Amino acid sequence: MNINNIKKEFPIFDEKIQNNDLVYLDSANSSQKPKVVLDRINDFYSKKFSNVGRSIHYLAVAATNLYENTRSSVQKYINAKDKNEIVFTKGATEALNLVANTLGQAILEPNDEILITELEHHSNYVPWHFLRKSKNIKIKFAEVNEDGDIPIENIEKEITNKTKVIAITHLSNVTGAVLPIKEITQLAHSKGIVVVVDGCQGGPHLKLDMQDLDCDFYAISCHKMYGPTGLGVLYGKKKWLEQLPPYQGGGGMINEVKKDRISYGELPNKYEAGTMATAQVIAFDQSIKFLESIGIENIVKHEKELIEYGQEILKKNNSVKLIGNPKERGGVLSFTVEGVHPHDIATILDETGVAIRAGHHCCQILHDKLGIPASARASLGVYNTKDDLDKLNDGINNCKKIFDLK
Amino acid sequence: MNLKELYQEIILEHGKNPRNLGKTENFNKDAKGNNPLCGDNVHVYLKLNEQRKVEDISFEGSGCAISMASASIMTDLIKGKSDNEAKEIVEDFLGMIKENPELKNNILKEDDKTKLMCLSGVKQYPMRVKCATLSWHTLVSAMENDGKETTTEN
Question: Which of A160, A271, A384, B123 lies at a 20 to 30 A Cα distance from A112?
Answer without folding.
Answer: A271
